[in-house]
Amino acid sequence: MCKEVFQMKELVEVIAKALVDNPDEVVVTETVKDKATIIELKVAKSDIGKVIGRQGRIAKSIRSVVKAAATKEDKKVIVDIM
């Protein structure tokens, strides 16, 4: 179980680091609550717009990719951008 969670966390981290100007400030944490895994993404204040995108399109895309990967593993994963 931990291996799948780590893969989702790693997926979010790789995507976020590719989008931002300060990849060293990307922090991804995961917690498991009930049957869902919550992945929290934190980036520098100057990079928050790049991760969210216009009208939230990039954030929605990140969530869609993670959801697709989680569905393949038969897991429920929630991505929160802090």
From TrEMBL:
Keywords: Cell shape, Cell wall biogenesis/degradation, Chaperone, Cytoplasm, RNA-binding
Superkingdom of source: Bacteria
Main location: cytoplasm
GO molecular function (one): RNA binding
Compartments where located: Cytoplasm
Coiled coil: none
PROSITE patterns: KH_TYPE_1
Gene Ontology CC annotations of this record: cytoplasm
GO BP: cell wall organization; peptidoglycan biosynthetic process; regulation of cell shape
Oligomer status and interactors: Forms a complex with KhpB.
Function: A probable RNA chaperone. Forms a complex with KhpB which binds to cellular RNA and controls its expression. Plays a role in peptidoglycan (PG) homeostasis and cell length regulation.
HAMAP family: KhpA (MF_00088)
Family statement: Belongs to the KhpA RNA-binding protein family.
Name this polypeptide is given: RNA-binding protein KhpA
Record organism: Eshraghiella crossota DSM 2876
High-level lineage: Bacteria, Bacillati, Bacillota, Clostridia, Lachnospirales
Gene: khpA
